[in-house]
Each structure stands twice: as C-alpha cells, then as structure tokens.
Write a structure and sequence with these properties.
- This protein is α/β, with parallel strands linked by helices and 211 residues long.
- The chain has one domain: Vaccinia Virus protein VP39 (Rossmann fold), CATH 3.40.50.
- The chain contains eight helices and seven strands, in the order ααβαβαβαβαβααββ.
- It has helices at residues 3-19, 25-38, 54-59, 73-85, 98-102, 123-133, 152-163, 175-184; strands spanning 44-48, 65-70, 91-95, 108-114, 134-143, 187-193, 205-210.
- The protein has a seven-stranded mixed sheet, sandwiched between helices.
- Helix 1 packs parallel to helix 4 (73-85).
- The structure holds S-adenosylmethionine.
- The site of S-adenosylmethionine has 18 residues, from helix 1.
C-alpha cells in the first residue's frame, strides 16, 4: 500500500465526505475559535489534509495568506468549487503532501492539520517535514483522533474495514505517544486542549512551536 492508494481511497470518499455533517458542531466551533486566536494577521498559513476546504474557508480571511492542501485531487476539486462560489484573496488550494511541500522553497508561520495526522503512514517523517516547513518559532496546530485512547473494539474493527476497502490506513497511537512524537520532531508542546462538547474526547488539540 502507498500514498497513491491512500489518495485513491480519499478520492473515492470525497463526494460523501463533502455531504457529511460535522458530528460535533460546538466542538468544531471551539477549535476554529482557538485556532483563529493563535493566528496573526500577517501569518502565512499552510493547512495539510484540508479535505473539502471547510476550515480553510472559515480561517483564511484572518491571515495574510493561506495555502490549503490535501493528498486527494478530488477533495481539492470540491474545495476549489467552493472557492469559486465565494472567492477569497489570499486563499489557494493545491493537491500536495507535507513531504512534497518540504522539498520546495516556501516556508510558513503556521501549519495546521485537523483529523489528518492519524492518516499518514510515516508519522515521524511527516512531523519532520512539518518542522522543515515552518520558520523558526512557527506554530504547528493539530487536532487528531488518537485511536490508542479509543474503545478497543475500534482497533479490532479497523483491519476488517480496511480489508474490504471501507476504511483508510490509520495509525494507532495515544495522545501521550503523539505528543512524544511531535516533541521528538523538534517541537516544544505549548499546550493541549480538549474541545469536544459531548462524549469522551480522544482528539487532543495540540499547539506546538518549532524550537
Ligand atoms: C478525515 S479527512 C479531514 C479533512 C479536514 N481536515 C477536516 O477536518 O474535515 C482527512 C483528509 O486527509 C487527507 N489525507 C490523508 N492522508 C494524507 C496525506 N498523507 N497527506 C495529505 N492529506 C492526506 C484525506 O484526503 C482527507 O481529505
């Protein structure tokens, strides 16, 4: 399995993902509010795994520039349709991964990744690429499902769902392990918050700073 097969999975899922409802709207609003408060008007922002661009369209107006990226060209095509409907200077969408972007010259003041880090196959390597994409002192802000902290039944069901093509690749780690990996990639963890408005929250919102 490869990043090409991951892209195909998400291409196939893009239309239903675009139609799906946010499961915890209040929790999502809290994440947007906290992220917005951490961004500055002159920031150059990169979002990874942006999906159909919902978050990008909400946050891009508050910063200097906002590049929203995703491994799936179909997700990006839907995001671009939304952008045509409500154009925004400073916001651009592009099909790309952290690894590919890190080999280019552009650097960012903040990198965002929501519901994304559990989907990358080489998490330590991706975190190193994110570190390289930031200017010194730049912020990495993420919110990630930590399957290691979830009901063990999910871990049992996941391989079966993957076998029949109904689930993507997903890494299993706890919030503590994720924080450790982020720190090992050269970040200082500035804070960890929980934004869910209901149920057990296994998706820590982690703010890190490139040391
Ligand atoms: C669960 S969706 C989340 C979308 C959006 N960030 C949100 O919170 O609604 C995960 C997204 O990550 C993208 N993705 C998966 N693996 C990726 C990778 N290695 N690099 C970049 N994007 C990836 C998928 O195409 C998908 O759009």
């Amino acid at each position: 399995m490869s990043s090409a097969s991951d892209a195909r999975f998400w291409d196939r899922s893009s239309k239903s993902y675009a139609r799906s409802r946010i499961s915890d709207q209040a929790g999502y609003e809290r994440t947007l509010e906290r992220t917005g408060a951490l961004l500055k008007p002159d920031d150059r922002v990169l979002e990874l795994g942006c999906g159909t661009g919902t978050t990008a369209l909400r946050l891009a107006g508050t910063v200097e520039s906002y590049l929203a990226t995703d491994i799936s060209a179909s997700m990006i095509a839907i995001a671009e349709e939304k952008l045509v409907a409500s154009p925004f200077a400073g916001l651009a969408f592009r099909t790309a991964t952290a690894e590919a972007l890190a080999s280019e010259a552009a650097r960012f003041d903040a990198v965002l990744g929501f519901n994304y880090l559990h989907l990358v196959r080489d998490l330590a390597g991706t975190l190193r690429s994110i570190h390289a994409l930031l200017v010194p002192g730049g912020r990495f802000i993420s919110k990630t499902p930590c399957l290691g902290d979830m009901n063990p039944l999910i871990k049992l069901a996941l391989p079966l769902m993957q076998m029949i093509g109904k689930a993507p690749y997903a890494g299993v780690f706890s919030a503590q392990e994720l924080s450790g990996l982020i720190a090992a990639a050269g970040f200082e963890i500035v804070g960890t918050e929980r934004h869910a408005s209901k149920g057990k929250d296994s998706r820590p919102f982690i703010v890190a700073r490139r040391a």
